[in-house]
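Memo to structure team: turn this sequence into structure tokens by end of day. - J.P.
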Amino acid sequence: MNVFVIFDIETTGLDRTKDQIIQFAAIKVDIDTNEVIDSMTQLIKPVGNYSISIGAYFKHHITPEILNDKPHMFDVAPDIVKFFENADNILTYNGNGFDIPFLKTELNKYDFDIDFSSKNLYDAFLEEKRRNGISLENTYLRYTGKQMNESNLTAHDALSDVKATLAVFNAQQKINSYGPEQIFGDDNIIVEMDFNGKLQPCFNIGKYKGISIEYVSSIDKNYIRWCVGDKCNFMKSTKEYLQQYL
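Reply from structure team:
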């Protein structure tokens, strides 16, 4: 039987040195038949005083109230470790960069561990990036069916890159035409990001990075006032955009 464990975690934030896991979920699958052999899902109450970052909340919508009567990580760690037993294959989506090191850090706090280095780690996120790389060369190949050098273009030569970009744009427009991007300022302080399930103008830096401008204005109008004030070094165009939220 070719057994895979596929798992995911939700956390109070992105910093594994101070944030904590608040949900663990996993299934154990016979990958040859896709039969689910076992499953586990557990909400977890963090230890000590804690807060859930705004960005994390809008990803998973878990609140401290939901976790109030749930067990701590040191209570459920033995069950989590046991779930990985006899599974040589692990599958995640961006687990190599986030879920695995976060889970190991959390387990190690309570003298538990999983030796992921001894297992076969599959990461669907990394594989997708490899298959559909975001470099201009990969994008050009996907849309034209040719390597850049087959079209007498040299990757990372500015003029060649310009011509390749035009070729990609023309191919995209034929498939599904699109208009210009909306710009919220000249300094990239505000960009469109996925916030609460839809693309919205969000801060790209600072304590509200990843949070929509509209939401920040509803909870911390003083921060918007500071952003448009003289002490803030945002560009004029960005300040003018933010002014509408006051």
